[in-house]
Design goal:
Layout (H helix, E strand, L loop, with lengths): L1 E6 L4 H13 L4 E5 H4 L8 E6 L4 H9 L4 E8 L14 H10 L4 H7 L1 E4 L2 H6 L6 E2 L21 E6 L5 H13 L5 E7 L1 H4 L8 E5 L3 H8 L6 E4 L13 H8 L3 E5 L5 H6 L4 E3 L3 H12 L2 H26 L5
Parallel strand pairs: 1-2, 1-3, 3-4, 4-5, 5-6, 7-8, 7-10, 8-9, 10-11, 11-12
C-alpha cells in the first residue's frame, strides 16, 4: 500500500502534520501537487491524504480512480468549513477557501476520514468524527536550537501571511509607538500589506516566499524577539501553534497574544511572554526583552523545554492514530 499526499503546493501544513505521521508509521508515501496528480499512474492500490484544498479536476481524478483507492483522508488546520469564520479575512484569501475547501465540504465530510489540527475543530465538527493530529516540530534540529547572539540593535520580527489582516493593521500602530527606540523590525509581507508600512523607520520588508525558501530564511540566527499577534475571532479560534516552532527555529524568544492557542503552556513553561492585545503592554515587553539578554536566555530555555514536551506528546498521540 502506498499513501499519496495531495497538496496544492509544497507547504508547511504537510511538513508539520502529514509527513511526520507517515514517517513515524514507516509508511511509503509520495507527495503530488494538484497539477502533478493527473499525470501520475499507479500500479498498486493507494490511500489518499488530501491536504486543505481540493479542485474540481482533482475530484474528477479521484472519482475516475475509485477502483485503486483503498481509503481517503482529509486534513485541515484552519476552519475551512464555516463561511462565518471567513468574514475577518482578506477577500482574496476568503474566496480561495470558499472555492477550494468549503465548496467541497459535503463531499469531503461524506467520503473521507477527517483529521483536524486541534481540539477546537474536533469539537466543532464532532458529528464528522474527526481525529486530532497535532503538529510535529519539523525542521528544528536540537543541535541548532541556539539563541541568536546579541547585537547593537535588537531585531523584532513578525512573519505571517495575509490572512492576518487585522493583526497587520494593529502592528502598524505598535511600530509607530516604537519609532524612537533603538530597534530594528522585520516583516514578511505581500506587496499589498507592505504599502501599509510606508514611512516606518528601521524596518526591513521581506516579500512573501515559498515555504522551502522560508525554511532556510527562518533558520538564520540574527533575530531576537518574535511576535505572535492574534485577535479573538472565529477564524483565529482554529489557528495552529506552529508559529511557536518558527520563532524557535529563528533563535528568538516570543511575545504571544493571550489568544494564541499555546498561550497556557507558554505561561506554564515560562517559554515566552503572553499578553493581551494592548499596544502599551506589547511596547513595554519588547523594550524589556530588548534590554535584557539574560531574560531572553531564560525564556529560550523554557521554550526548549516546551518544544521537547510537545514533541513527545505528539509522538504519544501518533500511537493512538490508525491510518
Amino acid at each position: 500500500m502506498i499513501y499519496i499526499i495531495i497538496e496544492e503546493n509544497i507547504n508547511p501544513t504537510t511538513d508539520y502534520y502529514i509527513v511526520p505521521l507517515l514517517k513515524n508509521k514507516n509508511l511509503n508515501f509520495i507527495r503530488l501537487t494538484h497539477k502533478e496528480l493527473s499525470n501520475f499512474v499507479f500500479s498498486e492500490r493507494v490511500r489518499l491524504l488530501i491536504v486543505r484544498y481540493l479542485t474540481g479536476e482533482v475530484l474528477r481524478w479521484i472519482k475516475k480512480s475509485v477502483d485503486i483507492i483503498d481509503k481517503i483522508y482529509y486534513f485541515m488546520d484552519d476552519d475551512l468549513f464555516d463561511l462565518k469564520a471567513l468574514k475577518d479575512l482578506p477577500l482574496r484569501y476568503a474566496f480561495k477557501i470558499f472555492n477550494k475547501a468549503w465548496k467541497f465540504k459535503n463531499w469531503l465530510t461524506t467520503n473521507t476520514q477527517i483529521f483536524v489540527s486541534n481540539d477546537y475543530l474536533a469539537e466543532k465538527y464532532q458529528k464528522f468524527n474527526p481525529i486530532v493530529l497535532p503538529p510535529y516540530p519539523a525542521y528544528i534540529d536540537e543541535k541548532d536550537l541556539l539563541l541568536s547572539p546579541e547585537a547593537q540593535k535588537t531585531l523584532v520580527f513578525y512573519h505571517s501571511t495575509a490572512s492576518h489582516k487585522i493583526e497587520f493593521v494593529w502592528l502598524r500602530n505598535l511600530l509607530n509607538e516604537l519609532q524612537s527606540e533603538k530597534l530594528f523590525f522585520e516583516l514578511v509581507v505581500d506587496q499589498r500589506t507592505a504599502k501599509m508600512y510606508k514611512g516606518i523607520k528601521n524596518l526591513y520588508l521581506v516579500h512573501s516566499m515559498k515555504w522551502t525558501e522560508y525554511l532556510t530564511f527562518s533558520s538564520l540566527k540574527y533575530r531576537h524577539i518574535g511576535l505572535a499577534l492574534l485577535f479573538d475571532n472565529l477564524f483565529n479560534k482554529a489557528r495552529s501553534y506552529v508559529k511557536f516552532y518558527n520563532v524557535m527555529r529563528s533563535g528568538a524568544v516570543g511575545i504571544y497574544s493571550e489568544y494564541f492557542p499555546l498561550a497556557k503552556s507558554i505561561k506554564e513553561f515560562q517559554a515566552g511572554i503572553v499578553l493581551p492585545m494592548e499596544i502599551k503592554a506589547w511596547k513595554s515587553a519588547i523594550l524589556e526583552l530588548a534590554s535584557n539578554h539574560e531574560k531572553r536566555k531564560e525564556l529560550f530555555e523554557g521554550a526548549k523545554r516546551l518544544l521537547y514536551h510537545l514533541k513527545e506528546k505528539t509522538l504519544e498521540d501518533y500511537k493512538k492514530i490508525n491510518i
